[in-house]
Amino acid sequence: MLVVSKDPVAQLLTAYPVLHHALLQRDVRGGPGGVAVTAHQLTLLAQLDQAVGRTLTDLAVAMGVALPTMSLSVDRMEGLGLVKRERDPGDGRRVALRLTEAGGRLARSRSLLDPVRVRALLASLSLTERTAGIEAVVVLARAAQRLGLSSSSASRSDRHPRGRS
To answer: Which end of the chain has the lower number of beta carbons within 10 A, N or C?
Structure first.
């Protein structure tokens, strides 16, 4: 049972993780050779780009994990042929992480959310609840885009300044 607060920020901070976890893919097939990737690995792929590199430190901070943990995750993704490390031509000390073609295809073709779980959740709601819930999510997504908080509204270079390593 969710603890209901009168503070809308507290309400969202409490409810969103429950919803996200309930709808999250548990195992995603589709890597090279049909290899399975976890939801965490798919989230990692969603943080990267094929054209613009990102540092390991920046990626670890963005995903809220320790640098050694991120290093192990990137090693695994590199071993699967989904991520590559390249020296930055402008700064040879900087290593940029980029998606490979296979990583880019996988990131574009997979959702972090499980469509079966989403359908089941929506089917469990009344028409009024379902309509209100979807409208609320759409309103929040549009607000995130207006504020530049979503990946589809901000360019990779704006979100990943070169100065970070």
So the answer is: N
Residue spans in the chain of domains classed CATH 1.10.10.10: 27-112
Q: Which helix (H) or strand (E) holds 57?
A: helix 56-63
Phi, psi for 64 (deg, rounded to 5): 70, 35
Lookup: tokens for 69: 């943990």
- Specify whether the CB–CB gap between 94 and 87 falls below 8 A: yes
- State the number of CA atoms in the 13 A half-sphere of 61 facing the CB: 9
Name the pairing type of β-strands 28-29 and 36-37: antiparallel
- The DSSP string of 6-24 is S-HHHHHHHHHHHHHHHHB
Distance CA 11, CA 106 (A): 33
77 beta partners? none
What are the backbone angles phi and psi of residue 83, rounded to the nearest 5°? -130, 145
Entry pTM: 0.56
Return the structure tokens found at 58.
């920046």
- Could you report the per-residue pLDDT of 81-115, keeping only the tens digit for each? 999 999 887 888 889 999 999 898 888 777 777 88
